[in-house]
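Sample entry as discussed:
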Amino acid sequence: MSYSVLYTDEKTEGKLIEERGFGGDSLRWREVYLLAKYLRLEYGYGRNKIRNIISYNCESEIKGFNAFKYKSSIDTVVKAAMKKNEYVIDKDVFITDTEISKIQTIKNFFLQKVALVVLFMVKRGRGDVFKLSEVNFISPLFPRNVSKRKIRIALSELQRMKFLKRASETSLVPTYRSDEGLKIIEIYNVGQALNLVNEYVKFCGGELKFCRRCKQSFHPTTTSHVLCDECKRKSYKKRHEVYNKKRRSKNV
């Protein structure tokens, strides 16, 4: 399949985004991609008109939206929606429990997500390697904006950790791939592919962080949390002991 198809779930969601807008306080690239594809295949709009509609919606709906800052990223996503379907799936793709177990040994939740997306890109039926030129198509698979630079850094880190290895100067191979095991996440169409990261977050019970001290995973309640509950209690207890010791020494 080398042409764009508007799947039923994409059409439903694209129409919903058109009617209610993007919503929220930040731009979600998956929604931008789906709206751009919907406007193209449902109404036959051209690239400039689609880009103008998206920019106008963002400026009117998202507080503090900077059109200049996101112009290049919006152009990239709209271009992807205008071209043939870059996320085409030639066969059913599934992620096994063995693969997820290996991915979850990575002590960084963002790197886990990148590893999952790379695995999907490899398994979707276009060979056994991840082409570095496909970095452009990773960003729309994340609910929030992720720069190409951040993705390239993540790929380098995964190589350093030996989760990826060089197949050639322009391609990588995931060492954690394993088709054996229980199917945990199944992907049949583009809509599910664009929701892959969200599904993984749900599977993990929500966003995860890794404790700065013990390296155990925990669900943060705020973005500033860097310690798990146990280490936080120990840290508080230690500070309290130091404080009491200093107070006693002053009273002597």
